Amino acid sequence: MATEEPKYAVLEKEPPFEIRSYAPMIIAEVQVEGDLDEASSQGFRLIAAYIFGQNQVSEKIAMTAPVIVEDQSAKSEKIAMTAPVGIESNAGKWTVSFVMPSEYSMETIPKPINPQVQLRQIPAIKKAVIGFSGFYNSQKVAEKTLELERWMKVRHLTGTGTPNFARYNPPWTLPFMRRNEVMITLRD
Fold first, then answer.
1. How many whole angstroms separate alpha carbon 84 and alpha carbon 142?
2. What does residue 145 show for φ and ψ, rounded to 5 degrees?
3. By CB neighbour count within 10 A (0-12 exposed, 13-18 middle, 19+ buried), where does 64 fall?
4. pLDDT tens per residue, range 98-150
5. Over the stretch 44-90, which tens digit does the pLDDT of each residue have?
6. What's the pTM?
7. CA torsion, ordered 149, 154, 160, 162, to nearest 10 deg
8. Which one of 33, 85, 107, 171 counts the least CB within 10 Å of its CB?
9. Which residues, including other chains, have CB under 8 Å from residue 10's CB and lie 6 or more apart?
10. Nearest Cα to Cα of residue 6 among 67, 70, 53
């Protein structure tokens, strides 16, 4: 059975980079603390509990990909396109999110029981993306973020918000088969 992913159109492709136009989506998200790996694991467990039935109607919600991790320590900082943006959080605050299956609207999606799990509607957006395989750690994510920022700068693209790290595969996936991405929302 295939895992649903957010719907998008590729507007420009220059491997390993892409510019994508994403359709509106609903995400379930939690705020967690720790390093990248701890936050990713803790956030995954909290949202997985929600989709496995810890919601007001005890309904199971289909698993989707990717799991998205965003560093909250940089939220109030402006993104400098000439310097690396630190993905490792000094404050250790992260947002971990899952995209919900497209069959749901904000009115029909089961409401979480755990108040840490929040549902949010995301409008249509464009993102610059760099993909990579293998294992991830905060250093590799920071390196890929810098590569993406340099590519964007050459193309005169301006990002908004903080970079997101997306992982698509379960932990038991062989490293060379893993799909990871760093995404930066583009300003219109």
1. 7
2. -65, -45
3. buried
4. 999 999 999 999 999 999 999 999 999 999 999 999 998 889 999 999 999 99
5. 999 999 999 999 999 999 989 999 999 887 654 333 333 232 233 44
6. 0.84
7. 0
8. 107
9. 18, 19, 20
10. 67
